[in-house]
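Box 3.1. Reading complex inputs
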Amino acid sequence: MVKNKKEIIEIQSVSKIYNLGQTVVKALDNISLSIYENDYISIMGPSGSGKSTLMNIIGCLDVPTKGDYKFNSELISEMNDNQLANIRNQKIGFVFQTFNLLPKLNAMQNVEVPLIYSSLGKKDRTERVEEALSIVGLQDRMTHKPNELSGGQRQRVAIARALVNKPSIILADEPTGNLDSKSGNDILKFFSKLHKAGNTIIMVTHEESVAKLSKRRIDIFDGKIARDE
Amino acid sequence: MNRVFSYLVDAVGGVLFYFGQTKLRTALTLMGITVGVSSIIAIMTVLATFEKQTEMLVSDMKTNIFYITKDNPIDIQFGPSTGRKGRIPRITWDEYEQLKRTLTLTTNMAATTTEEPSDRTISVGKEELKSRLASFWGSDGDVLSVSKYDILDGRNIQDIDIENSRRVAIVGYYIKEQLFPYSNPVGQSIEIDNIPFEIIALTEPKGELLGQNMDSMIGIPISTFLKYFGSKGWRGRPDLQLILEAESMDSLADATDEAIGVFRAIRKIPPGDPNNFYIATNDQLMDTFGGFTSSLTIFVGLIAGISLLVAGIGIANIMLVSLTERIKEIGIRKALGARRIDIFLQFLIEAILISLLGGIVGIILGLSFGSVVAIFLEQDPVIPFDWVFYSLQICASMGIIFGLYPAIRASRLNPIDSMRYD
């Protein structure tokens, strides 16, 4: 693997252990992983393999029980809730399987949400929102509410929302899982475009066809990395 | 600052959206606040209206004046009367004359008897006054200047009128309007219970005070009153009210003490027994009214307080319901970078806005209801701005107090679990 690119994520001997009363679940078992700038990674694995836990930790939604996690050389594993929120806001763009748009807000307002938590002025926010929505080709759907948009359009709004704060990485959790194959393909083409434009993309999927499009594939099994190539 | 403004815009949108989605539930919750606030504002509107009227009354009164009457003229109280037991004698002309002879510290003294309202027939020829006469008085004093009436035309009652029990009358402007619409009544004749009187003066229009038409008034010398109306008709022998004037504010206390002593002696009240008459200065009369308004304020405050407490619990409840309905939204917002404080403020601002909304509706209803009551009592309604302000403050505080727990709970939600919640 080419290692001359900048390292964004460094995961070292990370374990995540859930204590569910009597039973102890080892969701991640001593995983080490590096992710570089402009990587396009798919993470695969059956359900219960720990890939969601890995995504949550990479996405700073959760902290590991053991081990170190560094994001842009900052030690995430020792950050508090507010510091994690700031990292999520500034450095990470989330794309979810179920889109997770706020139903009462229109496309523009949905895309604006991350900017609200980043202390940007209203004028700058509107500019950025319009820019992000035109990148995903929804400049003529800006005032539509999610229920007035198709599944593919909703996911594009979600992608615009993920891009709006110009994050270091885009984390996509089964982004095509709720879409028909045509819309799914459109979204995947779009990810390829983003990758070519220099973005770093990490995508969780269980579809081989989807994983094939990425440049690097990591298989998780029983909380361990089974394959990384 | 930008963030807080964004929350505010966001929260207003959120509340409006939420209100639209759950109209009935929100309306029922708001009703508690609305009832509480509107009852405060309605009562305060009525009280403010009356307070303004009383202030006008006070400014009309001299401060070195005191009264001896049978009862407290402004005796408004809750519950059973704490007053004297037994029969309270009316103040008679004899008592008045004895008092007048004995008092040394009182520079001026007048006796008045008033029928308010009066059922006497007032007529000019065949024309009769259709409405009831609001005030019919007899006096040997300068009632006009004490009550701040100005003579528009004619002359005041003079000593010679009293000495000779002359049938002369002063009429208010309403009497002219009703019975002499096209002529000057001064010098003309008017019949009171079919007894003819000569009109010697017409007073300037005075309008209304505490719901009474001040211009529906006829005054005659007290001697004439006692002679023609003293022994028959309305409640038998007239009850006199004595108006006494001390030399100055400083001698007012001494003059009152002297009057009490002398009047007790005239009535032969044994030492230790309470007075069987009422004596008060203008200030004391106003204090009675002040006491009434403040006890009413406490009473209303208590009712409103209970209603607001119930309403506050309703707000806490609706915010908790709103919280469980929006767990997913909170999760999404947190994933997108909302910190605890962001979610906390979002919920708190919503709670405050909901209670303020209820409060504003309550204020509007209360002002309308209070004004209707004031207008019904023929008063110009006065807006109690202080209470409008307090109500908004109370509502905002309620939003904070009862929104606090739901807001804290919302802010502590875990983003991963919340996003999975459906």
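In summary: Residues 76-85, 232-236 of chain B have pLDDT under 50 and may be disordered.
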